[in-house]
Amino acid sequence: MIRVTINDSAVRKLIAALPKTAGRAAEIALDKTAQAIRNEIRDEMRRVFDRPVPYTINSLQITPTRGHNMESSVWFKDPERMQQHYLAPQVEGGSRRLKGLERAIAAKSGVKMELVPGAGAKIDQYGNVARGQIMQIMSVLKVSEQWAGHQSDITARSARRGKERDYIFIPRKRGRLLPGIYQRVARGGSAVRGRYSSTDGRTRGRAGGAHAWQTGRKKLVVRARGLKPILLRGRTGHKVMPLLDFFGIAERVYSERFMVLFTSKLNELLR
Question: What is residue 146's DSSP assignment?
């Protein structure tokens, strides 16, 4: 976290001499400086990260000055169900934290692993596995309740359609299969579903049964034929090299902006 505080002795002397006016100008300048720091860091995120999602860009929050404490702070929003924000290693270094699906899998199976996209993953415009596919995997594997309060586990109706067999989790290497999450590969074939037509049966001289004519709409018949890798185990616990110069940007923006903002606001209040 970066805390924007007044470190200029001349400003402190002005605040002591004009506590109401100079103090107010300092508070406004601190909060505007914090806003400028947040905006600069957002721009840096867009530069150093590969297609960051809006959630990442909007993950910064400002705590403005309170009770004349002469301090404003900028940091990441408190993460849900995590001790540390997922972007903190990009600032401070350290080990990569497990993501939502990874934590849910670990909570249910006891197997901790980092997952990386496999050949069958659906990739969105930001280069990540599509959220819809992630949510479907979580529902099928029945781990939805383990993550972020999501409660849309597979329904009884979906189970009757065989949806529970779409994805499977393999915790350990099995033959040539690496640990991870796979989707069953299906092939389609045409079949005709409907009631037998007794009229056609009589006309054509065929009895009901295997050779009877049918009427009705066509239905796709799906048969499992293999497994397609969606998410595979990556390197677990590897160190993250910081990409975001959070503190360097904050110091630079403070040096460039605070005094200009403070002087301008003080002159405005003294008119």
Answer: G
